[in-house]
UniProtKB/TrEMBL annotation:
The protein's name in its UniProt record: PP4R1 phosphatase
Keyword Calcium: no
GO molecular function, one term: protein phosphatase regulator activity
Coiled-coil stretches noted in the UniProt entry, renumbered to this chain: none
Lineage top rank: taxon: Eukaryota
Origin organism lineage: Eukaryota, Metazoa, Chordata, Craniata, Vertebrata
A Gene Ontology term for the protein's cellular component: cytoplasm
Keywords: Repeat
Gene that encodes it: Ppp4r1_3
InterPro entries, per database record: ARM-like, ARM-type_fold, PP2A_Regulatory_Subunit_A
Region described as Disordered: spans on this chain: 11-31
Keyword Repeat carried by entry: yes
Length: 282
């Protein structure tokens, strides 16, 4: 009992220092729930207190971030209001390891919270991570498809304009970043229309096919073959015809041998994966 009152005292004290429009009493009520003992939740929420990180454990914010999806699942989406402020505090933490931890789990949190809360509370955080350090961006990139498939179609289309930015990294030798992008684009083909694939994903795929690192190129051949398959099955035949003409123009007739080799490998993948009828291939 005495521990509970102490925790409430600590929690109220920290509320007084925030620039919230709520009174301390209202602020405390917004953190109250009936799923777990309130003292336990108050203890967890106090982990983001800067003084605690300095005196107790410098890694405490990272542990807090790691556990957050589990806490959210336990409390349920109806009690998300208890965690929202803590989540936003962690998402803007000075340590990139804390932000990276959240970036790797944001798609899991989106499933727990549902589409409305995701659109309102998680999408702004997700957008911030997209502009962060590569160590943080890789977290959202690895689960890009998992997150985008949970968004409304119109919201999802907004990210088409940003996919190109993943080709730029802090360190150009970070080829695994581009390899991961190619893997994710294969999955994203199912989420977008034929026109969107042709207009936005095709230029990125062609750029990846000409990458300096062979591991990136090999995944990109698979990406292009899947793109051919998807566009062939679309109701508008002009997209796949234009794509194949561009493959011939850009790679088959390339003045560099590496470009012509790329064309052969793409053809091989198209045949192996049965992406086109043979008469169309011919």
């Amino acid at each position: 009992q005495s521990m509970g009152s102490t925790l409430h005292y600590i929690h109220n004290d920290s509320d007084l220092s925030t620039n919230s429009s709520f009174s301390p009493e209202e602020e405390r009520k917004s953190k109250v729930q009936d799923v777990v003992p309130q003292a336990l939740l108050d203890q967890y929420l106090s982990m983001t207190d800067p003084s605690r990180a300095q005196t107790v454990d410098t890694e405490i914010a990272k542990h807090c971030a790691y556990s957050l999806p589990g806490v959210a699942l336990t409390l349920g989406r109806q009690n998300w209001h208890c965690l929202k402020d803590t989540y936003e505090t962690l998402a803007s933490d000075m340590q990139w390891k804390v932000r990276r931890t959240l970036a790797f789990s944001i798609h899991e949190l989106a499933v727990i919270l549902g589409d409305q809360l995701t659109a309102g509370d998680l999408v702004p955080v997700f957008n911030g991570f997209l502009k962060d350090l590569d160590e943080v961006r890789i977290g959202v990139l690895k689960h890009l498809h998992d997150f985008l498939k949970l968004l409304h179609v119109d919201k999802r289309r907004e990210y088409l304009y940003q996919l190109q930015e993943f080709l730029v990294t802090d360190n150009s030798r970070n080829w695994r970043f581009r390899a991961e992008l190619a893997e994710q684009l294969i999955l994203l083909l199912d989420l977008y229309s034929a026109r969107d694939i042709y207009d936005y994903l095709r230029p990125i795929a062609f750029s990846l096919c000409a990458d300096k690192v062979s591991s990136v190129r090999w995944i990109s051949y698979k990406l292009v073959s899947e793109m051919v398959k998807k566009l062939y099955m679309a109701s508008t035949p002009t997209f796949v015809v234009d794509l194949m003409n561009e493959l011939v123009e850009k790679f088959c007739r390339c003045h560099k041998w590496s470009g012509r080799q790329t064309f052969v490998f793409i053809c091989q993948t198209i045949i192996e994966d049965d992406c086109l009828p043979m008469d169309q291939f011919a």
